[in-house]
Amino acid sequence: MGRSPLGIEPAEVSGESYGVWVELSATLTGWLLDSDPSLRWQVLRDLTDASAAEVAAERARVTTEGWGAQLLAAADEDGRWAGGACFPGDFRGDFSDGQPWTSTYPTLLLMRELGIDPASEAVRRSIALVRKNCRWEHAGQPFFDGEVEPCINGRTVALGAFFGVPVEDLVARLLGEQLADGGRNCEVENGSLRSSFHTTMCVLDGLLAYEQATGGTPESTAARRRGEEYLLERRLYRRLSTGEVIDPDWLRFSFPTQWHYDVLRGLEHFRAADGAPDPRLAEAIELVRGKQQADGTWLLENPHRGAVHFVMEEGDGQPSRWNTLRALRVLDWYEDRSARVRPQP
What we know:
- With 345 residues, the chain is mostly helical.
- It contains 13 helices and two strands.
- It has a two-stranded antiparallel sheet.
- The chain is globular and about 50 Å long.
C-alpha cells in the first residue's frame, strides 16, 4: 500500500489514533474539507465545532458552486432532467451498462444527499417546474403523487419532505402496503409476501423524513418503527432463519447508494432517527469500525454502474470522503448515544 491521500504512511499510524474514540486529527479533517461545498458543510456540521453561521454560509454555496450548481444547470428547459422521471426520456430498457442516474428522480435524490438549500430561489423555481411538468413513466402520474412501487414512492415522500411539497396522500398509500413482517417489497403487486431490505430501507427513509419535516402521525411513526424492527431482528444484514449474511454486497459501502441497501446506509437511518442505539446494531457497528483504513479513511466500494452527471470520487477501492464522513458520524452517534466508555489508547 502506497502513501494515502492524507500523505501518511500506514506504518506511521498505530492503535486507534484515527478512531472515533480520540480527537479527529487535523490532517483527516483537512482532507475531508478539501472538497466540494456539499461535503464541506456537512463535515463542518457533524465533525467540527464550527458555528451555525459558518455551517449555513458553507451550505449556501451548494446552490451556486460545485456539484449542486452543476445539477441545477443540467436541468431541461421544462424543469425535468434528461427528459424523464425515473429514467431518461430516450431510455429503452437496456441495463447492460447499468441504470442511468441522470433523470429527474435520481437527480433530486442526489440534491438531497448534497444538502442543497430547498429554500433557495433557484431550487424553489426548479421544484415548481418539476411539479408542473414531470410525470412518471408508469401511468403519467404527477411526480410528487408517486406511482405504484413502494421503493420509488418511499423516496418520493423523502423528496417531498425535503423540498416542502405535500405528500400526505402518498404516505397514506405506503401505510396500507406494509407487509406482515414489518417490511416492504416492490413485488407485492406481483404477489410477493416477503420483504426486501432495499424496498424497506427506501420506505423507512421517506417515513422518517416525513416525520421530521411535519411531525408525522401516530400511524406513520408506528409503521416506521415496525420497519426498523424488521431490520433489527436481522442485525441489519443476516437471515432471520439461519443467521447467514444475506448478501455480501451489503457489507460494501457505496455512494451514492441509489435504491440499493447496504449496512452503512441502514446505520445512517438509525443515526438520523437519533434514538438510543439498539443493542442489535452492535455487530453492524463493528463491521463499520473494522473497515476503517490505517490512515483513518474508508474506501468507496461497489459503485452502482450507470450514466451519471459527473464523477464525485476516484473509484472503487479508493479512499472516499463521502464514506469517511458517513462512517465517522455514524460511529460518533453510536458512541455518544450509547454513553460508552472510551477505551484508553
